[in-house]
Inverse folding.
């Protein structure tokens, strides 16, 4: 018991508090504190074997527990088992005692993240014992990183990349980025650059190449940059620049070592990818040029690769391309010899000091044949994989793209390929369809031929988001934070495709507690169906050929050139393997009364209208809650915009079909129908543009030029004039259709 001194007793009496009460008060307060804390006590034991990933999971559990208040004993540990899959874990529960046992630190982290999530979404009390292992071992993000004016990536001639140059040199950017990746179960981060070495390493033989500071041009960019990566640093850009960060090359190296350590502490490996041959930041120094026959250039690249490997012990590997910076008509054997002499030998030089290190090399299939690649790299001492553009540029098209089949049939025994899963479909909006993602993931190749995937765009910068017209004060959110739901779906389902839709509804409910989570789930899912439906019907394989947010291609692209008119829709091809008829084939079968064994254009239009109708119906139950939930309101706006876009495409397809029939028959009924549908399409486009542009700004994109949705309205309206003036017999069919491309050669 605690007693008071004479002075304290006197003070108590003076203040009118009875002596007995005052004497017991501290003990009572202490006892009440103990009672209160035990009612909401989390006892968490984190074994040292879990390492950095375990510490991350511990911080996540403690944050959620503090927010919710729970009574439990949780322990995290690692128990290595022979032949156990990496990243696997089991959860053992006895009452309120929960043990997470990982086969490695990453597994322990993922189990810990399950605990944190269960606390957050209110399923902690019903969490059961379980065993878990990854469905896909390597689940990655593709990030075209804008390092500096002088060392650009493919995306740098765009508004988003320019805005992100200073951001990627800030530690808070990477903490948020890597935290989100880990929570969503991604474990590979690939950074893509045309020539990153001057911004990341010092090369003793070429001391003038390393770059201090971070530069950004102040010159106004336009849509005249090449599609090949050449000419990305212009004289006028260098003449008018700003220093966005004062930093030495030594400080840059320390920074990237820190980033890689932070990644490792979240179970993430970082890879650097290059296109070749580009010498931005080094060109003209020490005699370096982009001439593949220049021996100085070869020596510089070999030394730069060596230093990249040596400087960054945590670097997970590199990816290379015999790419657009090489003469297109050059013998591919010469290209591969150059890559081996630079990248292959550079890695071997570095590993002389660390021969036990496995430094994986990923060689993209791009204009060279498998046999030539394997012959050139036959002496590579570490893991050597391929990489293939799985859906070309459009992951939101069909769930089982057929482009990879020749590779799977012909890949060399014992070799595996990565999948580049390109999202050049949706840059602006929030969305998410677990059914589509789950089916796509389950259709990926078998593990004996499949190393993993990395997902991302070439035409947009997945850094911080700068499209929002009315941003909140402070730092802009990451694209991964804004579109958290879709990122979460792909990462979580790639780890465990058996996760049910009900789990994602609970996550939505936890984030928006006043909203109807089933209706929000349905709105996001239905709105997400618009892009796959239209892209499988109207196919442009690479990003600069087709941007479904705007019915658009790059204005300088030969054969399309900006907005796709009603005539282009009639002339277009469906996606290979989609089992969809283009308008010309549909018309031919209709006229000749042949069976429609594939999905018709009219059925695509009906599906688009159905997706829009389901979206609007689901949104009605969310509008009241959205008034007090700003993020929910943004979800409502985005879903509504996508629904109007779906209705636009549905009407445009119907109008194109009717005009195609008028072309062949001169039937005035079809002519009138075409005009009616195209007038409907204009109404829907205006509604789409109104919602989209009330919330987002127009932007310059590196692969599309300047995209202004409201500005495109004039071209949408011009479709009506095209139809009015259409002359029967004008639609020709040359028999050409979209093909599989030539991304793989044996």
């Amino acid at each position: 018991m605690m007693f008071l001194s004479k002075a304290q007793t006197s003070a108590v009496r003076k203040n009118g508090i009875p002596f007995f009460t005052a004497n017991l008060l501290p003990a009572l307060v202490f006892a009440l504190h103990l009672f209160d804390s035990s009612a909401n006590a989390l006892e968490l034991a984190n074994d040292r074997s879990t390492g950095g990933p375990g510490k991350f999971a511990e911080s996540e559990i403690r944050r959620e527990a503090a927010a919710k208040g729970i009574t439990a004993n949780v322990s995290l540990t690692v128990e290595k088992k022979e032949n156990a899959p990496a990243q696997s874990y089991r959860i053992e529960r006895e009452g309120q005692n929960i043990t997470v046992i990982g086969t490695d630190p990453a597994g322990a982290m993922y189990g810990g993240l399950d605990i944190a999530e269960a606390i957050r979404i209110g399923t902690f009390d019903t969490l059961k014992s379980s065993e878990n292992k990854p469905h896909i071992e390597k689940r990655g993000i593709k990030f075209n990183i804008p390092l500096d004016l002088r060392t650009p990536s493919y995306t740098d001639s765009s508004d988003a990349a320019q805005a992100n140059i200073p951001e990627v040199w800030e530690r808070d950017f990477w903490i948020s980025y890597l935290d989100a990746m880990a929570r969503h179960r991604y474990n590979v981060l690939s950074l893509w650059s045309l020539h990153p070495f001057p911004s990341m390493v010092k090369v003793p033989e070429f001391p003038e190449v390393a770059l201090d500071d971070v530069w950004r041009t102040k010159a106004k960019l336009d849509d005249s940059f090449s599609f090949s990566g050449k000419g990305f640093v212009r004289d006028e850009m260098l003449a008018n620049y700003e220093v966005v960060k004062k930093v030495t090359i030594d400080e840059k190296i320390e920074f990237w070592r820190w980033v890689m350590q932070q990644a490792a502490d979240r179970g993430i490996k970082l890879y650097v990818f290059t296109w070749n041959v580009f010498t931005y930041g080094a060109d003209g120094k020490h005699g370096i040029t982009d001439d593949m026959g220049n021996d100085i250039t070869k020596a510089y690249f070999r030394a730069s690769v060596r230093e990249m490997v040596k400087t960054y012990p945590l670097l997970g590997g590199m990816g290379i391309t015999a790419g657009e910076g090489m003469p297109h008509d050059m013998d591919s054997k010469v290209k591969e010899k150059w890559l081996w002499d630079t990248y292959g030998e550079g890695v071997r030089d570095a590993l002389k000091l660390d021969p036990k290190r496995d430094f994986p090399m990923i060689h993209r299939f791009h204009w060279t044949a498998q046999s030539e690649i394997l012959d050139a790299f036959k002496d590579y001492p570490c893991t050597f994989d391929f990489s293939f553009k799985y859906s070309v540029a459009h992951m939101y098209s069909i769930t089982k793209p057929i482009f990879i089949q020749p590779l799977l049939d012909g890949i060399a025994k014992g070799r595996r390929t990565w999948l580049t899963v390109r999202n050049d479909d949706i840059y602006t909006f929030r969305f998410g369809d677990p059914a589509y993602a789950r089916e796509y993931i389950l259709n990926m190749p078998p593990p004996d031929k499949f190393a993993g995937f990395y997902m991302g765009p070439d035409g947009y910068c997945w850094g911080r988001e700068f499209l929002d017209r009315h941003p909140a004060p402070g730092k802009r959110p990451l694209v991964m934070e804004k579109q958290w739901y879709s990122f979460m779906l792909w990462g979580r389902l790639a780890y465990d495709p058996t996760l049910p839709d009900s789990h994602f509804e609970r996550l939505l409910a936890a984030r928006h507690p006043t909203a109807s989570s089933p209706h929000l789930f349905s709105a996001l899912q239905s709105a997400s169906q618009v892009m796959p439906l239209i892209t499988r019907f109207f196919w442009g394989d690479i990003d600069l050929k087709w941007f479904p947010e705007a019915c658009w291609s790059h204005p300088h692209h030969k054969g399309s050139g900006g907005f796709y008119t009603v005539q282009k829709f009639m002339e277009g091809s469906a996606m290979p393997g989609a089992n969809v008829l283009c308008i010309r084939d549909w018309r031919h079968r209709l006229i000749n009364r042949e069976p429609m064994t594939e999905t018709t254009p009219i059925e695509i239009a009906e599906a688009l209208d159905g997706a829009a109708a389901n979206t609007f119906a689901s949104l009605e139950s969310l509008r009241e809650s959205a008034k007090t939930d700003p993020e929910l309101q943004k979800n409502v706006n985005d879903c509504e915009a996508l629904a109007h876009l779906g209705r636009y495409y549905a009407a445009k397809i119907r109008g194109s079909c009717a005009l195609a029939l008028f072309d062949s028959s001169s039937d005035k009924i079809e002519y009138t129908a075409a005009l009616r549908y195209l007038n409907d399409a204009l109404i829907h486009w205006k509604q789409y543009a109104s919602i989209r542009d009330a919330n987002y700004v127009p932007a310059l994109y590196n692969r599309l030029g300047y995209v202004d949705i409201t500005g495109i309205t004039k071209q949408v309206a011009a479709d009506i004039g095209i139809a009015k003036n259409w002359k029967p017999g004008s639609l020709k069919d040359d028999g050409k259709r979209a093909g599989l491309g030539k991304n793989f050669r044996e």
User: Anything to note?
Assistant: The CA atoms of residues 119 and 305 lie 45 Å apart. The first helix runs from residue 6 to 14.
